Amino acid sequence: MSEFALSIRGLRKAYASGTEALKAVDLDIAHGEIFALLGPNGAGKTTLISIVCGLVTATDGTVLVNGEHWRDAYKAARAQIGLVPQEMNIDVFEPVWNTVAFSRELFGLKRDDAYLEQVLKDLTLWDKRKAILKELSGGMKRRVMIAKALAHEPRILFLDEPTAGVDVELRKEMWDMVRKLKERGTTIILTTHYIEEAEEMADRVGVINKGELILVEEKAALMKKLGRKTLHLQLAEPLSEIPAALAGWAPQLSDDGLTLTYDFDRHAEKTGIPSLLAAMRDEGIGFKDLDTKQSSLEDIFVGLIRNGNAGADA
Hints:
The chain contains 10 helices and 14 strands. The protein is of the alpha/beta class. Helix 3 packs parallel to helix 5 (138-150).
């Protein structure tokens, strides 16, 4: 077995107009992990997926799929990949069963009705197997898209915004299915606008912006950052600068001098808040109100996008 399920080096996509959709992306995905790729619209998420899946031609770079070169051994590499795209690409006049079975046949695999039955049952589609696709709801059609992607038993599954526009119940069912796939050893790469899904599901998170991968980090490390909280103190009187007596806590002073901000670790045995408030009292600094805010993955994501490549660890 190759070291990585997916190994990307120097992957770049430039158009004749001069626009660079991808800027020399390097990325390794481990076997059996769930990797979440976050980024704003137009960041390059779908371009990256489309290149790996053979739908878009890269300008430069290489991709190895379980050790198979995605160009030199195209059929072998592509057979290991399942893709659930954002856009529906199914024949709405076909029955569900025919659609899924045909997808398996496209990869030259032997008929396996028992496997397809299990896929449909996992996606709550078994009762709809004879239904014409146009008769199904949008959420049901999305399930069929996933069933199609799984029909040829891929070892790597790409989910490009898989829960966009679906109801809460279906989102939960889909993520239950993703967990089952992970347990079976399937490697999953997903893009999502629902940052809480990445926070819930992913082993690692990558952030891409303007075609550049600006962060790749273990989810556990990100969650440690999520332990940070911020204390906001609304002062009774404005300060022109932070007194030397408060320097040890490294608080930030707002431009108008009326708000002190102090970051602390909520998991720490001593947060430093009582001693900070005592020092403020000793200095005669009063405050009218205070509140705390928990950092979220979304805060980190927005901060990375706003600050560009500062602190990138890709």
